[in-house]
Design brief:
Helix content is about 40%, strand content about 15%. By secondary structure, the protein is of the alpha/beta class. The protein has two domains: about 220 residues, TIM Barrel, CATH 3.20.20; about 60 residues, no CATH class. β4, α5 and β5 form a beta-alpha-beta unit. α2 runs parallel beside α3. It starts with 5 loop residues before the first helix and ends with a helix. Bound molecules: flavin mononucleotide. Flavin mononucleotide (FMN) binds next to β3, β9 and α9. The site of flavin mononucleotide has 28 residues, from β3, β9 and α9.
Length: about 325
Amino acid sequence: MDWETKVTRLLGISYPIIQGGLAHLAYSDLAAAVSNAGGLGQITAMSTSGPQELRSEIQKVRQLTSRPFGVNYAIGQHGRPFEEMVQVAIDEQVPVISVTGGNPKPVLQKVKGRGIKTLVLVAARRQAEKAEELGADAVMVVGHEGGGHLGRYDIGTFVLTPQVVDAVDIPVIASGGIGDGKGLMAALSLGAEGIEMGTRFIATQECRHAHQLYKEALIQADESSTSVIKRSLNSPARALTNEWTERILDLEKEEAGYDGLKDYISGEANKAFIHDGRQSEGFGWAGQVASRIKDIPTVEDLFKRMLMEAEQIRTRWS
Ligand SMILES: Cc1cc2nc3c(=O)[nH]c(=O)nc-3n(C[C@H](O)[C@H](O)[C@H](O)COP(=O)(O)O)c2cc1C
């Protein structure tokens, strides 16, 4: 079946499926596996130790695949020389850069005219319009179901996607709550030209940085197993509910503020859970779609299954 959309043409990929940035999880192994399966894999730049490691991860992806891939930047993450990190992707002539978490203007300006495709991840219609104005090649819209950092207005993917599709002329990629062929077809029905998935890719063989217990916790999750934390910091984000996130929510109720929360929401607390499997000493980001995850396939098998399911739906419709 033909899977060509504006997004596959824009990015030079076979299937309209993009692996979202995944803090401390998405390195060259996962990115190459997704690109080799026909989607767009991405390295999460700000999870590398700095420009040197980022360059080496980009070079590793190139050894593992000849297909297009992306580098994802979360703006406003501290501890790395942001401009220098973007420059590495430009010097290495990566095919795609995606940006999230702040004003994308400086990155889009820096990348302009370099032959690199740009994707901006947004969580509101106005942000999508702004990204288009600034020259982004496509927008990814993430609904409230999604894992990790979210928009401030709690808008679900089913409402946000068509709103943005109607508001901008550039292709829209739907994200948040998608993990199978049903989600892919639903997104295309809403007018999206592709999908982005985060949580589903954690429970794959090639997401080697994710501890087995994190993957198993995703499999065991049901639709009420996630919580939105960090609302009090105006930076809501969805994680698997556990004692640690319950403690964070209690602290938020007590108006602990950033100083009272910082040790609980730190990268170290995140890594204690997702890298080391110390589940009572940290947290792991995840979306509501965790409830739909039942196994840990290879990325290639995941793609095959999703596409087969989507094709069955198409056949049924026709
Ligand atoms: C563990 C985890 C880490 C994430 N880290 C990033 C990140 O560093 N940069 C980014 O743009 N998005 C990040 N996201 C968001 C995803 O790229 C994607 O937009 C989101 O997971 C989509 O929702 P889903 O989880 O329902 O698929 C993260 C999501 C998760 C689950």
